Amino acid sequence: MQTQLETIYARLCAHFGPQHWWPSRGGAFEIIVGAILTQNTAWTNVEKALVNLKRARLLTPARIQRVERARLARLVRPSGYFNQKAKKLKAFAAFLRKKHRGSLARLFAQELGALRAELLGVFGIGPETADSIILYAAGKPIFVVDAYTRRLCARLGLAGADASYDELQQLFSAHLPRDAALFNDYHAQLVMLGKYFCLKRAPRCGTCPAREMCTTGKEVIGNW
After folding, report:
1. Which of 137, 153, 174 is the last residue of a domain?
2. Nearest residue to 189 via CA among 162, 167, 156
3. Among 36, 75, 185, 213, which is disulfide-ready with 52 (CB 3.0 to 4.6 Å)?
4. 224 vs 77: which has the higher pLDDT
């Protein structure tokens, strides 16, 4: 029997189709840089910063570590909070060199729990960023919880609005097969739903592909 989460996923896939995420396809280190730069900003801003870094030929851990922080900050300025993000990028590059001789392969060879613990110990990397790196760059099965996930889980009646990051992550981990490709696409499907239907304000419940399973949507439509 399908779980509620599996049914929701099937509905979203039928509507949006496979998403083939991560949005950037420049390799594991570019994904890591993107995961750090996308904190508190839209992906369109991150893309501009990544273009700057590519033009400057800086998208390697060694070059990020060597470049002056002021120059790095100027290049990532489109992503916002650029001084802090430059500091975070250099912190990650320094960590990778010190702990894993600059090798992403050595970093990613660890068991998932150990990898996550290490990433969370790096300056500027919190749970969402760490999990994005683990899922999208390392290809290990962990569910990424973001603002879309939190909003949709509350509106769909899957969890309370005050549920913690760990509680929301466990919700998906406990009721879905632990599969990186599934977690990858499911997260992307939720982002699509949140961007185009389940908006923060004025959600488009009437045409939402998940409306029949959504407690909030049923209330909204019932009041029309």
Report:
1. 137
2. 156
3. 75
4. 77
